[in-house]
Amino acid sequence: MHWCSVDRLMMPVAEATLPITDRGLMFGDGVFETLRVTRGLLPHWHHHWQRLESGLRSLKFPATHLPEEDQLKHDCRELIKKNNCEDGLLRLAITRGSGSLGYLPTHTGKSRHLITMRALPIAPKSPISLMQSSYCRPPQPAFPAGVKALSSINLVLAKMEAHEHQCFDAIMLNSRGFVSECSSGNFFWIKDHIIHTPALTSDCLPGITRKLVIEAASQLKIPLHEGNYPIEHVHAADAAFYTNTGFGILPVKQLHKKCFTEHAIISSLSEYYLNLLI
Ligand SMILES: Cc1ncc(COP(=O)(O)O)c(C=O)c1O
Prior knowledge:
Elements: E1 3-6, E2 9-12, H1 23-27, E3 30-37, H2 45-58, H3 69-82, E4 88-95, E5 112-118, E6 128-132, H4 153-164, E7 169-173, E8 179-182, E9 186-191, E10 194-198, H5 208-219, E11 224-227, H6 231-235, E12 239-244, E13 248-255, E14 258-259, H7 264-277
Parallel strand pairs: 6-7, 6-13, 10-11
Antiparallel strand pairs: 1-2, 1-5, 3-4, 4-5, 7-8, 9-10, 9-12, 12-13, 13-14
Bound molecules: pyridoxal-5'-phosphate.
């Protein structure tokens, strides 16, 4: 996708630049969202907006520097049109902007809005393999809960480790030793026709797809438990799946030597989820 938007100005990606003093660049000081574009529209915008706004508040962005929802949505829509995009992914990043060079953001400069787009990732043709990561998710006192922060090095390292082991992704535990999530998606497993997923208290990101799957399970009357689970609980499961905005729902075939089977519940949830996008 050729065009991006920097502070409400559309320009070719190749010509876009960022001041070297931007705090997003210097400290990962900001938040982002990855949204699905379907038929040129932004389904689930409201959920993404809520997570973005609450992230900015958690990072103590001054109220006067919070973006306006309507304006931001308008800018996203204009960029979708400019890129002639029917289906793809849109990344919306808000940084604290430029100003003070130390950790303390003493400046009163404006936050910076960056919007980029890309094609949908190609979904794996068969169920994915996962490993257990040697990295754990930071506990909530070390990191504000539920924020999709620009500073994602913990996740970058976990994803690199997974690829080094020829795995699609890695399951990360939290600092208390409970299952949290994968580096780029939430994680669910099924045992005896009951779906399980780590509770938000497990230090996982409150994924939008996770939320939609939980709603789908409720609509389809499939029991779903959220909790703090040891990895042994996953090893005893019948089936498992991974979720994120880019891929939707991906069945898992393997976690190290543990093999999972295909499951009718995953097919029903996938069908329900795809219908939400239409
Ligand atoms: C760490 C992490 N957890 C979960 C998710 C899934 O979130 P969503 O469903 O909102 O895409 C992502 C998405 O990239 C992620 O990076």
